[in-house]
Amino acid sequence: MRYKPLLIFVILLSVFMAACDRKTTTLTISGSTTVLPVVSRAAEHFRSVEELRIIVNAGGSGVGINQLGEGKIDIAMASREITQSEISRYSGVEFVTHSIGKDAVVPVVSSEIYAAGVQALSFAQIGEIYQGKISNWLELGGPDREILVIDKEGSRGTRHVFMDIVMGDKNAKAPGADLVMGSNNEEQTAIVQSDAAIGMLSHAWLNQDINGLSIRMQDGSLIAPTIDNIVNGTFPIIRELYLITNGKPQGKGKAFIDFVLSPAGQKIVEQSDYVSIFY
Prior knowledge:
Blueprint: H1 4-24, E1 26-31, H2 36-49, E2 53-57, H3 61-69, E3 75-78, H4 84-89, E4 95-110, H5 111-115, E5 120-121, H6 123-130, E6 148-152, H7 157-167, E7 179-181, H8 184-192, E8 197-202, E9 210-212, E10 214-216, E11 222-223, H9 227-231, E12 238-246, H10 251-261, H11 263-271
Parallel strand pairs: 1-2, 1-3, 5-10, 6-7, 6-8
Antiparallel strand pairs: 3-12, 4-8, 4-9, 4-12, 10-11
């Protein structure tokens, strides 16, 4: 019985050391749902070769950047640039961005609308839809059907990039919007379930039920949202995808980012329907 206190001490010490070990071998990543597929697949592969616990959560670019600024995560995922207000808010944080690939933000419509003949729009037409000035597809050569306008939450990187290019203001209001969605997955589902929707999605989220519109340029030419046009830079709504750290990455965080930037990691980027940084 005289050894019981020592035994308790050893058990408690073991628990403490195990907790410390878990903390030092856990990498926390959060942010953009656009970057999420790449990071999730890379994390799955990385876990198989490294003794590392990787926790990946979505929430949007703004959420990831804020959590990094507050010291809650190790790496933020973002599909847009860091804003000056974010830099000012976290003046003690040294945001370091690591570009891991390229993507296009695409104006998308329900397959029924695309099949009915609306396959290209100008920025001016898209802007008038989101401003509520155009509310029926008939006005754009489509069926006599009210437009279901889907916007994204203000913190989403996809919205920042889309509104900045289409309307000249990343924080532009959208009084014509009927729904405000969060993740790409949520918006994709809403568009599939509608026969009259328009929205904005990452190129990787297009499928047979969601068609990306070509952009009608001022000279009348049409530019389709294809991988080739993303690679050659002609599609007009292109953005970089980022992993962001507080200062230069260290240890396991650096090893993970290095893996994503390696040929094997960039293959995952391409398998996720994005464009590798090697192009």
